[in-house]
Amino acid sequence: MDLTAPNAAPSAHRASAANTILPLRVEGLAYDANGQRLIDGITFTLDAGPRTVILGPNGAGKSLLLRLCHGLIAPSGGTVTWQGATGNADAATHQAMVFQRPVLLRRSVIANVVYGLKLKGTLRAERAEIAADVLARTGLARFKDTPARLLSGGEQQKLALARTWALRPQVLFLDEPTSNLDPAATHAVESICQHMHDEGTRLIMTTHDLGQAKRLADDVLFIHKGRLLEHSPANAFFETPASGEAAAFLRGDLRW
Amino acid sequence: MRFTKSLIPVIAALLFTLNAHAADDKFITVASTTSTANSGLFDVILPVFTKKTGIEVRVVAVGTGKAIRLARSGDADVLFVHHKPSEEKFVADGMGMKRSDVMYNDFVMVGPASDPAGIKGSETAEAALKKLAAAKAPFASRGDDSGTNKKELGLWKAAGINPKTSSGTWYRETGSGMGATLNVASGMNAYALTDRATWLKFKNKGDLAILVEGDPKLFNQYGIILVSAEKHPHTKTALGQKFIDWIIGAEGQTEISNYQILGNQAFFANAKPGS
Amino acid sequence: MTDISAAFATAIQLLITLDANLIEIVGLSLQVSISAVALATVIGLPMGAALALFKFPGRGTLTVMLNALMGLPPVVVGLVVYLLLSRSGPLGVLGLLFTPTAMIIAQAILVTPIIAALTRQVVADLWVEYAEQMRSLGAGPLRAVPALLYDARFTLVTAVLAGFGRASAEVGAVMIVGGNIDHVTRVMTTAIALEVSKGDLALALGLGIVLIGLSLAINAATFTAKQRAEAAWT
Ligand SMILES: Nc1ncnc2c1ncn2[C@@H]1O[C@H](COP(=O)(O)OP(=O)(O)O)[C@@H](O)[C@H]1O
Ligand SMILES: [Mg+2]
Fold first, then answer.
1. Whether residue B89 sits in one domain with residue B32
2. Does the model's ipTM exceed the 0.90 cut?
């Protein structure tokens, strides 16, 4: 995999203060389903810059929180606001999300990337070149014309990432992107994330994998039973968790 | 929607070719009966007319009742059927211009060769029908308001029998064309009334044979009528009249008389000269 | 028994002599049924997709109706189209009765519910899988329609084939609106009905065998192509 391809794509997408959608302000966020409160009064602000990892046991509400932030589901209460200069209006076009199980279209690898660009409104003439570039960067170039659904699990997740990378989003949500992958594929996905971060994409990732969290987190949101229990820098969180639940989670004996 | 978009020219092309086909206006539509069409007469005489005049004749072959209804709706230019009372009513109602005799053949009563009801050799159709009713022998009726069906019902009436009260027992109404009804009769060894031409041409006779024929009441007259343009202005009266003039004229009449099925003359031309 | 063997002999003879009448009839059958299916596809795909993706008043009723219409008897459709196209009907001025176009219209009405109902089902299933990813990429249901139809293409081919099967097999509708006019609107099924009515069961069955052969060939070709493509793309 050649992550430092010399023809580095335009990094002009790096958000400047003038056109950023960040910071993200979440206030009193709540989500109910079937009369149950699944997300309960979550408030935080995420500024441009660091990599945020949302930690918590299975069923804590991490995925719901990401989907609420990304606007895929509507909150039952509270607000999600993009407070940057760009404002809320077209905030959606500057975000992307990678799902736990990649959803690939039934067409070739490169066509999947091109489709994302088409929806974003990228000029037709530029799509192929951008797509080829991200495929090269993610080590998928040789699968260019392979039907996407024939790729291995790891390759599929890399393709999902490549598809979002091509969009140069300001903010990328990742929902346990490596939970179904082997260590090598996990490593590859983490590297891609790191490169997107280096290019200026704001990463917000959920995981229940402590090792991954330690490798990637600059700051941590710790969720338990739909509530935000901690929001602290990674070092502080891992060394001196403030809540008993977080401490138990770090010891590996938090029951949910 | 690349996929569906690509279909549009295909459809347009197909519809176009089909309409180009249909747009050729030098044709008339003749509503006629299955018996005439199935006899094969049209296959022989229409090409002669078309060759001479360049007018294509499109025959829609249905029962007489339905043919008249088609003509009433304006869906045919010429009506060529065989039930004089209905035809005269059609003209009287102002739907048609004038009725002309064209030809006749006759009806025959067919049934199983073993003839369990013993109608063979009956002098009259009425006598035969009375025997059938008495024996409750299976009888397959068109039951479709066709010319043959109207004829058959007239014969029952003359015999003083109402077979409809036995419908579903020995009296079976197929509600279909002549051929389909003969298939039923052949399949269940039932008696039936049929026009001779259809019978001669019919291939699935099985055990059936002609049992009663020759009664003047079995006479089957065909008439032709030009649909009036008054109710339906689009009617192709000029072309239709040409066809009528030809078929009741010398050439058409000769063609009809020359038509044979298995060596038998099928129809007897009897248009009145100058009519 | 003799009829059946005679039928096979007739079928073979019709085929090897490339009987001119047969070719004309088969040609018109294909032209009519393919046009009808194409028309039904253009209407049925968007209709099915709309039913799958959008909530609008009457959606449930429409879905139930569509499913019920799949079983509509061809004669009823034929009758309705006849009443519409008859010179005394509302569309009589078009002069379409007893033309191939009338037959295409009738068959398209028969086939559209099949294609729309199957499209609705497959698109709805795909949407469950794709919805969030599509919305994340910036496509609501409307923008996603082409991609959904494209990704459902193999199932949709089956739907279209099912439609073609119904169109090419039906006789009730084309008989009424076409009139079974020789050289103009006579297709395989009406020719078969005619031969049955003439009592020429062998010729009728022979034509039937040709029709089955044709349908087999079309289905086999599509099936093989689909099988190959699907193995690669699913
Ligand atoms: N649509 C829904 N209806 C009911 N319960 C839901 C729904 N979506 C999620 N949940 C429940 O909400 C809780 C949080 O889910 P999720 O956010 O997926 O957890 P995780 O932290 O593992 O990602 C779980 O108990 C899950 O079963
Ligand atoms: Mg989750």
1. yes
2. no
